Amino acid sequence: MPHAAISSPDFAELKERIREWGRAQGFQQIGFAGVDLGEHETRLIEWLAAGFHGEMDYMARHGVKRSRPAELEPGTLSVISVRMDYLPESMRNMKEALADPAAAYVSRYALGRDYHKLMRRRLQRLAETIAEQVGPFGYRVYTDSAPVLEKALAENAGLGWIGKHTNLINREAGSWFFLGEIYTNLPLAPDRPVANHCGQCRACIDVCPTRAIVAPYRLDARRCISYLTIELKGPIPEPLRPGIGNRIYGCDDCQMVCPWNRFARLTEEADFLPRQGLDRALLLEFFAWDEAEFLRRTEGSAIRRIGHERWLRNLAVAIGNAPPHPDLAEALRQRLDAASPLVREHVAWGLGRQTRS
Fold this sequence. Notes:
The chain is an alpha+beta fold.
């Protein structure tokens, strides 16, 4: 963060201007947070100590830099936190896809282009606009790309509250949105956090197919379908496979049942709309992709990060969870010999389920 903070005294007015410039970049809400995340840091340390992060070693790799913005980026005095809606379709369409055991369900955030580049580009433009107006200042933009406690910062910035499922919820917009941050050396006063409105509701806890929400506000990622299908590199534990159903990349169940998502708005970003038929394909269609087609069809998508091997692993589990059908069993048999050991294990498991009497 090479530049000194500007000396203009009217930072209250600057905050309102930043909100205007942020909305012009397509962000639905812009808030401001300080750098004190003490309470959140305590919860992070406890979560890591419980081993709930599983194989996500990066969660612990940077120590307390994740919860101390000024240590991650020296000179940081405040954080500009933003959200951008991504919901691409109606709840009805999502429920229909999830209820069809022959369909492949992809978490709705991943149906369009990878949000990281789009969000980072918009945040960079916002930072450049600020610099054009107030002069050079120190900053760095983040979009889930560094050790940042983005939900904690967003909560402190008044964008919503962290719900019992550990996602951020906004009273007027639900939770179908991405978050991004600008760490800055501008002394911008933090906004006031909003109250928690989860109340006695436990819909997200009760609906979780693998019981990953082990207590309100406490997620064991090792049981979470998003972790199992995206982050986990090895075999999916057998006891958890049936709960995955037809979800082949991520899971939206806890958001789908949240009462506050009745206020969620459909995205206005064309890049977040479904591509390559990802919202309506059948399991057998995806399972037939070879690696070249997988790479071609997932170009520019967040899905590509798991690679073809884990793609097939996830599909083998989903096919195994589908009602037995000769076509599904035959598709699995055709993958038994050519597959990697990881895929072969899951194909054999799925075939056993498909051919059970």
